Each structure stands twice: as structure tokens, then as C-alpha cells.
């Protein structure tokens, strides 16, 4: 094999590595485009609060504590709340809505400092949190605008010209994971659509459906545990909260979109590293399998006399080839010599 033979050239998989990197980049880009819901660009507004209300004015409380201080008569109304019932439209609901609408807008630090009871605690001890302020992180999936006579009853505690927005969503608590068994209902006294943007779908009754909304932090007043039937026909328990301030949560990514993109990116990076080391190891194996040709060279200890080599070649050329062949065939081997010796001795 000559030195210029292709098999003697070391294996260079650089072009394959480049192809893998290009493919991985296109793959990640494609995944991000597929799971990015069309039209899901978030609006510039990231919060709505009491200052947004333009309907009938409700006297503003100076603090949350003042706004949620109830008279004895109002406390008697709150005591009539029945948890785990299917009755939603009760007098205490409108009392809590009015008090929620009177609460001041909180700075981010104060909103974050609000208590955030666990979902399990709300279900187990609803009376403990009744008419108390709390913070809840929710991924909304539907919004419906309610007015007196259209989803809302009439009460002296709530102005007939002020709408309420019913938000159905899933509680995410302190983590990004979604748990379908933790549904919640928010009755918002402020319009949430400025931070939600355009809906993905509008269902019957004007309910706006959102498939990939980021989580929101809601500052609200706890009302009750409502038992109702889900879309799948299951009977579920819903914590109901009257929200007076909403903001888009910056702590969590949108479940099912950004999280999935990050997961895909991590998998692709891991595969790239595996492929890189595999191709590198294979390249080294190919190089050792087909080494480059290197002619032998005499070492310094070898004493070579060119004249002696020339003389030996001339002697071999002068010898008769037939004589050489006859000598080779006529030479007895060791076994023949031993047998001849035994016969002569006998």
C-alpha cells in the first residue's frame, strides 16, 4: 500500500459535526415555532388594578386592613356562606366584591408580601380565610364578562352598572407545574383582558378562551369553596376569590411553551455533546486503524557495508540456479539422518 493511498489518510468527521450542529439549530427553531401559539404576543400592559375602574365610584379604603373591617351586620351576612355548595349567587358574594373594589392598588413588594395559603389549606379550612386578603398564582384559561341580569344578580352592595369578570384557571402555587385537579375561580372587579390580549377562541356566551396564557398573580379576597361540575362532567371543588388587582407573573414561564422549549433545548444540547464525543472517539479509532506509511530506516547501531552487499549479490548471481535447487532437495532432514544412523548401528 502506497503512502498516497486514501486508506492511509486519517479520518476527519468535521463535516458531519457541522451537519449535526446545523440540524440541531434548525430543530430547536422548528420546535419553538411549533409550540409558540400564533398571536400569543403579550400586550404591553402587565397589570390592572382599581385605578382602571371607570364605572360607579366606590369609596376607596386607605389600606387593605381598613377596607376589610366589617360591621357586625356585615359579619352576620358573611356567616351565612355555605361552603361546598353549588350556590354561587349569594348576598355575601356582592358584599365581598364591593369591599374588594374599594381596596387600594398595591406596589409589587406589598402584593408579593400578601399571604399565599396552599390550595389544600383553602379546601380544608375555608372559614379561616373567609373575607381575608390573599395572593394566588393562576394560569387562566377562560374569561367571561358578567353584568346585572346577565350572569350576576342584583344586590344593594354592588352597583348594577359595574361588570365583573369571571376567570376560570388552574392554581400553580409556588411551582410552574399545572395540576388540573386544582381549579380556581376568580371574580375580578377589574377588566383582565388588557393583560391577556386577544383570545385564542370565543365560545358560546362570549366566554374568551386562552390556551397558552402566562401565570398571573392575583390580589384578592377569599369568598368560599364552590362545588360545581367540570367540563369533563366531574364534580370538583373550586376556591372562589374576589380579585381587585392582577399582574402578569414574571417568575414563571408559560407552561407548555417556554418550559417545553427549554426542555427541548436541554435535550438537544445533551445529544450534541454525546454525538461530539462519539464522533471524536470514532475519529481516533479510524486514525489508529489505518496508520500512515513510514518506510523503515536503519538505526544508528546497524553497521551496513554497501560493498559487502554488492559482493553478496554478485555471488548469488554467479551460482547455478539448478545447483541451488538440487542442493535444497538433496539435503536430508533430521528424521532421515536418525533412521540411517540406527540401521548402520544394527
Structure description:
- The protein is α+β, with helices and mostly antiparallel strands and 346 residues long.
- The chain has two domains: 57 residues; 204 residues, Nucleic acid-binding proteins (OB fold (Dihydrolipoamide Acetyltransferase, E2P), Beta Barrel).
- Helix content is 38%, strand content 19%.
- The protein is built from twelve helices and nine strands.
- Strands 2-4-5-9-8 form a five-stranded mixed β-barrel.
- A hairpin with a 5-residue loop joins strand 8 and strand 9.
- Helix 1 runs antiparallel to helix 9.
- The longest helix has 32 residues.
- It starts with 13 loop residues before the first helix and ends with a helix.
- The N terminus is likely disordered.
In a nutshell, what does this entry contain?
The protein has 346 residues and is of the alpha+beta class. The protein has helices spanning 14-35, 64-67, 72-78, 91-101, 108-113, 119-124, 126-129, 193-196, 258-289, 306-318, 321-330, 334-345; strands spanning 47-48, 133-148, 151-152, 164-171, 183-188, 201-202, 208-209, 216-229, 235-248.
Average pLDDT level: 76
Question: Number of domains in the coordinates?
Answer: 2
Strand proportion, as a percent range, falls in: 15-25%
Kindly state the number of beta strands. 9
- Helix fraction, binned, reads 25-40%
Distance between the termini: 59 Å
Following the backbone from N to C, one meets helices and strands in this order, namely HEHHHHHHEEEEHEEEEHHHH
Summed up, the helix count is 12
CATH superfamily of the largest domain: Nucleic acid-binding proteins
What CATH architecture label of the largest domain applies?
Beta Barrel
Radius of gyration: 43 Å
CATH topology of the largest domain: OB fold (Dihydrolipoamide Acetyltransferase, E2P)
Largest sheet entry: 5 strands, mixed, barrel
Strand order of the largest sheet: 2-4-5-9-8
Secondary structure category = alpha+beta
CATH class wording of the largest domain? Mainly Beta
- Globular, elongated, flat, extended or rod-shaped: what is the shape? rod-shaped
Low-confidence stretches: 1-11, 34-40, 252-257
Amino acid at each position: 500500500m502506497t503512502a498516497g493511498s486514501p486508506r492511509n489518510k486519517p479520518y476527519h468527521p468535521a463535516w458531519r459535526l457541522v451537519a449535526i450542529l446545523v440540524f440541531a439549530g434548525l430543530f430547536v427553531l422548528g420546535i419553538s415555532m411549533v409550540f409558540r401559539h400564533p398571536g400569543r404576543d403579550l400586550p404591553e400592559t402587565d397589570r390592572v388594578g382599581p385605578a382602571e375602574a371607570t364605572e360607579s365610584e366606590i369609596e376607596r379604603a386607605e389600606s387593605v386592613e381598613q377596607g376589610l373591617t366589617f360591621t357586625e351586620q356585615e359579619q352576620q351576612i358573611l356567616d351565612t356562606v355555605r361552603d361546598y355548595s353549588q350556590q354561587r349567587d349569594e348576598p355575601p358574594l356582592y358584599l365581598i366584591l364591593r369591599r374588594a373594589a374599594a381596596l387600594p392598588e398595591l406596589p409589587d413588594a406589598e402584593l408579593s408580601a400578601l399571604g399565599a395559603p396552599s390550595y389544600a389549606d383553602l379546601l380544608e379550612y375555608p372559614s379561616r380565610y373567609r373575607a381575608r386578603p390573599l395572593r394566588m398564582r393562576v394560569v387562566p384559561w377562560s374569561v367571561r364578562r358578567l353584568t346585572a341580569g346577565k350572569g350576576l344578580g342584583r344586590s344593594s352592595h354592588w352597583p348594577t352598572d359595574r361588570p365583573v369578570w369571571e376567570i376560570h384557571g388552574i392554581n400553580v402555587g409556588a411551582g410552574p407545574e399545572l395540576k388540573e385537579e386544582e381549579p380556581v375561580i376568580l371574580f375580578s372587579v377589574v377588566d383582565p383582558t388588557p393583560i391577556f390580549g386577544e383570545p385564542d377562541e370565543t365560545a358560546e356566551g362570549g366566554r374568551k378562551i386562552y390556551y397558552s396564557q402566562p401565570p398571573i398573580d392575583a390580589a384578592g379576597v377569599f369568598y368560599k369553596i364552590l362545588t360545581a361540575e367540570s367540563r369533563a362532567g366531574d364534580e370538583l371543588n373550586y376556591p372562589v376569590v374576589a380579585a381587585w388587582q392582577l399582574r402578569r407573573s414574571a417568575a414563571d414561564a408559560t407552561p407548555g411553551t417556554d418550559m417545553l422549549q427549554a426542555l427541548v433545548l436541554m435535550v438537544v444540547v445533551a445529544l450534541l455533546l454525546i454525538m461530539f464525543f462519539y464522533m471524536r472517539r470514532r475519529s481516533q479509532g479510524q486514525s489508529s486503524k489505518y496508520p500512515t506509511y513510514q518506510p523503515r530506516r536503519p538505526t544508528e547501531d546497524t553497521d551496513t557495508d554497501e560493498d559487502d552487499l554488492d559482493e553478496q549479490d554478485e555471488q548469488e548471481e554467479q551460482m547455478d540456479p539448478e545447483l541451488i535447487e538440487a542442493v535444497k532437495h538433496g539435503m536430508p532432514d533430521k528424521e532421515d539422518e536418525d533412521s540411517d544412523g540406527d540401521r548402520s548401528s544394527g
